[in-house]
Amino acid sequence: MSHPARESVYIPRMRLLLAGIVLAILAVDTVRPQAQQAATPVAMGVRLETQTWVDAQALLRPDTVVVIPLGAALMEHGPHLKLRNDLSLANYFTDRVVETSNVVVTPPLTYHFFPAFLEYPGSTSLTMDTARDMTAQVARTIARHGPRRFYVLNTGISTTRALQAAAQVLEKEGILLRYTDFGAAAAQGSARIREQEAGSHADEIETSLMLFVDPSAVDMKRAVRDISPVSTPFRLTRERGAAGIYSPTGTWGDPTLATPSKGKIIAEAIVNAMLRDIESLRGEAPPEPERTTPRPTSPPQPPWRPAPNIGSAVNGCPQGEDRDIKKLEALYNWAWMNRDAIALGGMWAEEGDIVHTDNSTERGRSRITQNRHEQFMGREFKAARHTLTFGHIRCLDARVAVVDSKWDLRDVTDAGGGALPRTEGFATLVLQRIGDGWAIQAYRYNTKPGTPPGPTLQKKPGYPDKQ
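^ thats the sequence. predicted structure below, dont judge the formating
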């Protein structure tokens, strides 16, 4: 039996209840995307490989900090960690840096200097010189387009030897390179939680990191304690009694003590160390390029004696000297093609100069190098080709020669990217022998009548009368 009075009260209450549920659902659906968006970190850094070259041109500025991750893709880490262990760590730390730091990041270097693990199948290593040169070359080629500050996000320990050597090479070229001291950062981060008595490879620390970063890449059932007396230099060996640290497992330490919570503490310490390094680098001034005189390789020549006929085929030059002088032509054209301001400026003597058609003067090797760097950074000269073709070569004495040449400049654009006409003319170079090579003391040129004027000069920093 129904009760109309009760129904009249019950039905409105049900409607109110249903309406409230609907509103609550709508409110949750409205809030959820906002919460998800807030929880998603906004990247501050840029991954260079995701850009076009046009985009890269805008990103690679003189004040840009370029991060180069380094993590071995093939290096043993005991029976419980993958060969790509260090690459996994490099990828994780790179993600963390990209989230919080305004940097441009390159793809990782996956092969480097790891000589201590080569007895274990799958492990790879470059020689130290190769690792040094590869690192320097990556930084050097990117530096040609603007950046002078590079940070190697390093997840190795032996790698620091090659990185230090690369930094020394690049410093002479006006490029700063800094890198993570991964061993120090990990030791500092684990100081209060470390339990193992010794170890530094596939050990409590590295295994804890991987349990936090990628637990699916860890097989704790295969982790074993393996600690033998340390060797100098550090090297693991599977042969008992051989030089190095005897380790049948490829581990040095006690990974059985590892936990994800330890890994989190250590990872945060390493991230903070990397971010401090990067901000410190951002505030450093790049060094001045070292002043060097090019030294073309050539066999020893007999003492110079004046030619009996100055108008003869040798033009007053000893046998073979004209060929050595002509090497400057190839070096000049190569340096321009590769936008290598350091190699190009290095062709001049320390006080050598260039006098332009408007009588403005660039004086000194360092000034010429700096101006070519600024010129190559300009949009107008990004695709330009400037060539010299040597003609008559005349040696005035054992230390001075004069070269007549033709020059050609094409593919220059205006500030808006529009193509400018080809320019050409003639140049005279006065060369001086310095040591066993030749350097340019004076470069004078004119523009062929009927052709457009030569390139517009930058106002700063290289031309005092243009400022």
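The chain has eleven helices and 13 strands.
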